[in-house]
């Protein structure tokens, strides 16, 4: 039974992911990593990675032969700033760095580029009255996958609803729930607050939004 398990009973994660919120999910009976905007998580264990998406995109990437995979959660398509200039993992807010770092982690731990398969979710228009970040995120991830010669298995993007995503890298299974009943100020406000925060920081002016 998963109920009552504490963090200390979870399978070990790679050191760089110690900050990720992990817990035992009583519904799936599996250890679960919950990622927030600007985070990603990679694992070789039988785990679930979950997040809630509004305008953001999550790419689920796995090596189908060694069953190592991960999921990211990013808000903005591209930054031209060198990733070495970022502190405290802030680069992962941008799609190009979020994809690069996650794929490199998979490859460093036994994955092969030719075996990678990708599923993509999110990019909803939930920030009313603002620039359509979701649309630009979709355009970015589709172009990125094509340019990098990666294999896109499936996608569920666009629309006006937030999504809850649960990804299982070991099997590649994804569960998607569109939050029709929760399309309210909560997720919209989270995205607007996060968007404002990350576009007014020290790297302002280095963002490309595919105008």
From TrEMBL:
Q: What is its EC number?
A: 3.5.1.44
Q: Quick check: keyword Chloroplast in the entry? A: no
User: Looking at the Swiss-Prot or TrEMBL record, what is one Pfam family this protein matches?
Assistant: CheD
What top-level class of enzyme does the UniProt entry assign?
Answer: hydrolase
* GO terms, molecular function: protein-glutamine glutaminase activity
Q: Which UniProt keywords apply?
A: Chemotaxis, Hydrolase
Q: Which reaction does it catalyse?
A: L-glutaminyl-[protein] + H2O = L-glutamyl-[protein] + NH4(+)
Keyword set includes Hydrolase: yes
Q: Kindly give the InterPro entries that the UniProt entry links to this protein.
A: CheD-like_sf, Chemorcpt_Glu_NH3ase_CheD, Cytotoxic_necrot_fac-like_cat
Query: What does this chain do?
Result: Probably deamidates glutamine residues to glutamate on methyl-accepting chemotaxis receptors (MCPs), playing an important role in chemotaxis.
Task: State the family it belongs to.
Answer: Belongs to the CheD family.
Q: Which NCBIfam families match?
A: PRK13487.1
Q: Which HAMAP family has this protein been placed in?
A: CheD (MF_01440)
- Which protein, by its recorded name, is this? Probable chemoreceptor glutamine deamidase CheD
Source organism of the structure:
Aliikangiella maris
Q: Which gene encodes it?
A: cheD
């Amino acid at each position: 039974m998963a109920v009552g398990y504490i963090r200390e009973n979870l399978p070990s994660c790679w050191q760089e992911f110690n900050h990720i919120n992990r817990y035992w999910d009583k519904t799936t009976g599996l250890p679960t990593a919950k990622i927030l905007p600007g985070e990603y998580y990679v694992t070789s264990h039988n785990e679930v990675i979950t997040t809630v998406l509004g305008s953001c995109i999550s790419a689920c990437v796995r090596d189908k032969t060694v069953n190592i995979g991960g999921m990211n959660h990013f808000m903005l398509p591209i930054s031209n700033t060198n990733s070495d200039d970022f502190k405290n993992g802030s680069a992962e807010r941008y799609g190009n760095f979020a994809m690069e770092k996650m794929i490199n982690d998979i490859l460093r731990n036994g994955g092969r580029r030719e075996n990678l398969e990708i599923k993509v979710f999110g990019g909803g228009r939930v920030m009313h009255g603002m620039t359509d970040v979701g649309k630009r995120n979709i355009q970015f991830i589709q172009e990125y996958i094509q340019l990098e010669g990666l294999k896109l298995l499936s996608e569920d993007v666009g629309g006006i609803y937030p999504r809850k995503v649960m990804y299982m890298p070991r099997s590649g299974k994804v569960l998607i729930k569109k939050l029709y009943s929760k399309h309210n100020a909560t997720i919209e406000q989270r995205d607007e607050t996060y968007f404002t925060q990350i576009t007014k920081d020290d790297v302002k002016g280095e963002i490309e939004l595919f105008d």
